[in-house]
Amino acid sequence: MHDVPAAWYDDPDDPSRYRYWDGSSWTEHRAPKFESSASSAHRSVVRATWQLGSRAVGPLLGIGLLYLLALLPALIVVAIGVVQSLEPGFGAIVDELTADTWNPGSDPSDEAFLESIRWRPTSLFWITTIAAALYAFPVSVLAHSVAIILMANRHRGGSMQFAGAWAIGVKRFTRHVAISLLWIACSLTVVAALVALWLLAVVVTPVLYAVAVPLTIAVVVYLYPLLWLALTSLYAGPTGRPPWRTMTALVKPQWTAVAGPVLVINLVILGINLVSSFLALIPILGVVISLAGSVAQWITQHGSGVVIWDQVGGDFDPEITDPT
């Protein structure tokens, strides 16, 4: 059996479970089969997610606040690039709009000035945007990984605080960034292939729509549940196994057990967005409601990943669930 690739297979000691074969020997990692995990996978993921969020809301709010503060320099840099792209120039526009004689309702020249304002991206805009993106990516990786690490610990009954999650996130920062970049590269390759197929259908022959439409639907529908669990398996899973291969090998035979809860969670997030968008129209209070909606969405997304990953038999790194 040494020629068999690493993956999840029927456990020779227990046919009702899967066991992980690392390519040379059986490991101690086991997971229930679809039939035995279906009931747990379809339990109220929403209730479990909110219970998890309530147990970790304090540290999560701290992580979110630090995340926003860390992104502030990137936002300022992009804003500078945007302002520099205004014509006839930001200073000239401010001077004109704040002049004592400014009255576009009755002065045709003021009306003409408003119509003459243009935004044309300059080289500075593109430089600042690229610089901000390069800065924001690793910051986002660290923020999301720390949040998932903390929630994984709390889900398994731990009491980890921000400092503990931060220490583990920083320790694994290079690994998380590298594998995230690999995931982005693979995702862009899939997207580029689909875009190329659609362009061929538009430019060459409409017959290709018969391939492009179902293929796009199949890719989106099949891959979405895997992508939903990707961050959890990457940031909170054991480091001794390939994260993507391990995650897909575990989820593929239980795809429906993942897809169902993921659909429910997305409907919940959609509802949160709709309600918060509607209530955001309320003066002053709307800003608070909008922020609360964003926090609820963030907790729901990451918390559901932790809950579903656990329900389908996914492993968490012992350093996270039982830190010493």
Would you kindly provide a brief summary of this structure?
The chain has 324 residues and is mostly helical. The protein contains twelve helices and five strands.
Molecular structure report:
- The protein has 324 residues and is mostly helical.
- The chain has two domains: 1-32, no CATH class; 40-70 and 138-321, no CATH class.
- The chain contains twelve helices and five strands.
- It has helices spanning 34-41, 45-84, 90-97, 108-116, 123-155, 162-171, 173-203, 209-236, 243-251, 255-279, 285-311, 318-321, and strands at residues 7-11, 14-21, 26-32, 86-87, 118-119.
- β1 (7-11) and β2 form a beta hairpin.
- The two termini are 37 Å apart.
The tally of beta strands, per DSSP, is 5
User: Could you spell the SSE succession in H and E letters?
Assistant: EEEHHEHHEHHHHHHHH
The overall pLDDT average reads 84
Number of domains: 2
Low-confidence stretches: 34-42
**Helical amount among residues, as a percent range?**
over 70%
Main beta-sheet annotation = 3 strands, antiparallel
Strand content: 5-15%
Strand arrangement across the biggest beta sheet? 1-2-3
Q: Kindly name the structural category.
A: mainly alpha
Q: What is the number of helical segments per DSSP (H or I, 4+ residues)?
A: 12
**What is Rg?**
25 Å
N-C termini distance: 37 Å
Specify the overall morphology: globular
